Amino acid sequence: MIGSVKRPVVSCVLPEFDFTESTGLGKKSSSVKLPVNFGAFGSGGGEVKLGFLAPIKATEGSKTSSFQVNGKVDNFRHLQPSDCNSNSDSSLNNCNGFPGKKILQTTTVGNSTNILWHKCAVEKSERQELLQQRGCVIWITGLSGSGKSTLACALSRGLHAKGKLTYILDGDNVRHGLNSDLSFKAEDRAENIRRIGEVAKLFADAGVICIASLISPYRKDRDACRSLLPEGDFIEVFMDVPLKVCEARDPKGLYKLARAGKIKGIFSLS
C-alpha cells in the first residue's frame, strides 16, 4: 500500500546571492551571504560563509576548510598521507604505499574495484517525509499490447492528482537512451531489465513512486529486481489479457512479424 506521513510545514526563503568578493583562484577566501529562514528547523535568518581555498602544494601539511552558519564554525580536515597513522577509526585499513598506515576501506562490486559507499546525512525516510509519500516500485508486466503503458500513464495521472510524485520507466522509452545499446537477444533482455530495476531502486530510495512498465517475461529477472528493494516496496502487476486480444491490438506489429517467423519469444510469460 502506498502510504503517507505528516510533517511540519517548513518555509525556506532564498533571496538572490550577494557575492562580497571575487571567487577567483588568486583569492584565498570568499564568502556568500545567504539569509535563510529555517522555519520549523531554526529561528530567524543567518549568514552562510563558504571558504574557497587557493590550491595547496603536495608538500604542505593538513589543511582545513570551514563554513559559518550564524557565527558557528565547522571545520573539514583534508586527508593527508600522514593521517594514515591514525588508529581512531575502525573502518580504516592499511594504506597502499604506506605500510602499517590507515585509509578508508574500499571494496569490489562486479567489475568495479576500489570503490567506497559514501553514506550521506539525508536518509530515505527523510525524503519520504518531505514528499509525504512512500517510495516504492510498481512493476507492470504482460504481453505486448496488454495495456502496460496505458495503465502506467493512467496510474501516474491518478496519483499525481492526489499530490503524489511518480515517474514512469517505460520499456521502450528507456531504450531510447540508457538502454539504446541493447538488442532483444536473451542476454540483452536480461540486462535491460537489470538496469531498469537498478534505476527504479534509485527512484524509490529518493521517495518517488516509480512505475516500471515492460514485458519482462522471465520470473527470475523480475525476482532479481524485487530483491533490490525492502520487502513490500516492490509491487508486481501482471496484465492478464488473453493472447488473442493482444494480437488483435498489435500496436507495434510484433505479432504479425512473429506469425511470419521473423521474431521469436513474444507469446509467453513465466
Globally, the shape reads globular
Number of strands: 13
What would you call the structural class? alpha/beta
Order of helices and strands: EEEEEEEEEHEHEHHEHEHH
Query: DSSP helix count?
Result: 7
Spatially, the strands of the biggest sheet line up as 11-12-10-13
Major β-sheet annotation: 4 strands, parallel
Which consecutive residue ranges, at least 5 long each, have pLDDT under 50? 1-95
| Amount of beta strand | 15-25%
Explain the overall architecture.
- The strands form 5 sheets. This protein has a 4-stranded parallel beta sheet, sandwiched between helices. The chain has a 3-stranded antiparallel beta sheet with strand order 3-4-5, with no helix packed on it.
- The longest helix is centred in the last third of the chain and has 20 residues, at 186-205.
- It is globular and about 60 Å long.
- With 270 residues, it is of the alpha/beta class.
- The chain is built from 7 helices and 13 strands.
- Helix 4 packs parallel to helix 5.
- It is 25% helix and 21% strand.
Short description:
Helix content is 25%, strand content 21%.
Secondary structure elements and pairings:
Layout (H helix, E strand, L loop, with lengths): L17 E2 L12 E2 L14 E3 L13 E6 L2 E6 L14 E4 L2 E7 L2 E3 L2 E4 L8 H8 L4 E6 L6 H14 L4 E5 H4 L11 H20 L3 E5 L5 H8 L7 E5 L4 H7 L4 H6 L11
Descriptive key words:
270 residues; alpha/beta; 4-stranded parallel beta sheet; 7 helices; 21% strand; disordered N terminus
